[in-house]
Design a protein that fits this description.
two-stranded antiparallel ribbon, 5-stranded parallel β-sheet, TIM Barrel, globular
């Protein structure tokens, strides 16, 4: 059954769709593979190592993304050990800068969905402050929303987002 979610000033019906990860470097082969196997879109994952670091690299990425049409593209941040809500304010601000930059890039790529993690690659949440994480995620949701992006928080197998009640609190309190 389809759900309707209030987002901004419009209601959008959200139907489940299968998306293929961007595991094939050649985008024409990726598009062929996805279409041959019945995928509706591509889940384009960024890592710190492949994130574009110049306007030229951003333009190259845009050409690659455009070559995937008519498939829907969703974006995903697989940024290990880059966490907003960090107890260390300098590390917290560095992470926020990274995630804001990702939101700006996704907006430039005309994306409307970005999935992020909290605690990816960490062994525990000792370096995170719960209230700051809520505050910073709320800030990121607003930042993304102003760019037409729905920010999604993906749960992990451990930590705060692995516990249904805490995960639900993150979603409810932040609008994510």
């Amino acid at each position: 059954m389809a759900r309707t979610r209030k987002y901004g000033e419009y209601n959008k019906v959200i139907l489940p769709k299968l998306a293929c990860p961007n595991f094939i470097a050649d985008t024409s082969h990726l598009r062929e593979f996805a279409r041959e196997h019945g995928f509706n879109g591509i889940d384009w994952s960024f890592t710190p190592g492949d994130f574009p670091d110049s306007p030229a690299a951003e333009s190259d990425l845009m050409r690659s993304i455009n070559s995937l049409e008519p498939l829907e593209i969703r974006y995903h941040c697989a940024f290990k050990k880059i966490d907003f809500g960090n107890i260390d304010e300098v590390e917290d601000e560095k992470a926020m800068t990274v995630f804001r930059r990702v939101c700006d890039l996704v907006a430039m790529l005309r994306g409307d969905t970005l999935t992020i993690h909290l605690g990816l690659g960490q062994e525990n949440t000792n370096h995170l402050f719960w209230h700051r994480a809520i505050e910073r995620l709320t800030e990121l949701v607003g930042f993304a929303h102003k760019r037409g992006i729905r920010l999604c928080l993906e749960n992990l197998a451990w930590g705060w987002t692995s516990r249904p009640q805490q995960f639900e609190k993150f979603l409810r309190r932040t609008g994510c």
